[in-house]
Amino acid sequence: MKVIEARNVNDALVTGFCWLLEHGKKRDSRNGPVYVADGPVTTVYEKPRERVLFWPERDANPFFHFMESLWMIAGRNDVDFVSHYAKNMLNFSDDGVTLHGAYGYRWRHHFGGDQLGLAGDLLRSDPDDRRVVVQMWDPNVDLGQEGKDFPCNTEILFRVSVYGKLDMTVFNRSNDIIWGAYGANAVHMSMLQEFMAAWINVPVGRYWQVSNNYHGYDETMVKHKGVKSNLMKDDPYELGVVSPYPMVSTDMDTWQQDLNIFLQDGPIIGFRDKFFRKVATPIHHAWEAWKEKDPEKGIDIMRQCIASDWRQACTEWLERRIK
Questions:
Q1: Is 305 assigned a catalytic role?
Q2: Catalytic pick from 18, 152, 305, 314?
């Protein structure tokens, strides 16, 4: 098995991209030709909280990744919220209302209980528990079925390491490295990991992503072949230009109440956790400025965001739209 050891998502993207270009095999798929690894590939993130991607050629939408992650942690499956940040999400809904494979809904509702709540309580009471598995794949509604949206990430294992940190292993049946593994997944899963670490009251440890079918679509790989940015040198995290900002600074009940209010009502006065006042709120307002075709206003709003990594990524994304 190939193991990619990376500092963060920026390191992992460049390393994985170059490795797959050299060692991947050309194959056909239902979505077109791909480069695919000849076996599972594991990516190990040493600093998973450094989750924001700064590769301009990839042009990842940080607004969407941020908001979709909160939507997941809240346990929602409505397509309306996420499609506000990425219209193409409507293409993955079978009924135009919900997303069948929504991770967050499966974490918190689908199997008849809140898996995240139970996982947090188990590890708080016994940090050595080795049976804390959060499931996303349901063979009763997924295996052999037809539809537009089935979970690519299938299960998550949490454990408190020998160093007292929350480690996380995520298993993935099919992973597009550009859009999935080193795009959306790195944000979604690391934010979940940080949320769960706060629940257990331990630091964030390492994050393993085990990709059973590790691939990149031919069109995307070729498009980026000549622009392999050397983020090993230019990574803003490694340079100390940006740093992660803590997601949770209050108790879990307060944080989740703020989360639900934010997703339901948008930015309001009265959030008790600084993350929603000083990070989520400016990101929301900057996106609305973009939707109103005023990216300059969005850039000005992002100056209020105290999370330097999200501030820089959102600002750069808006600046690319102006240029």
A1: no
A2: 152
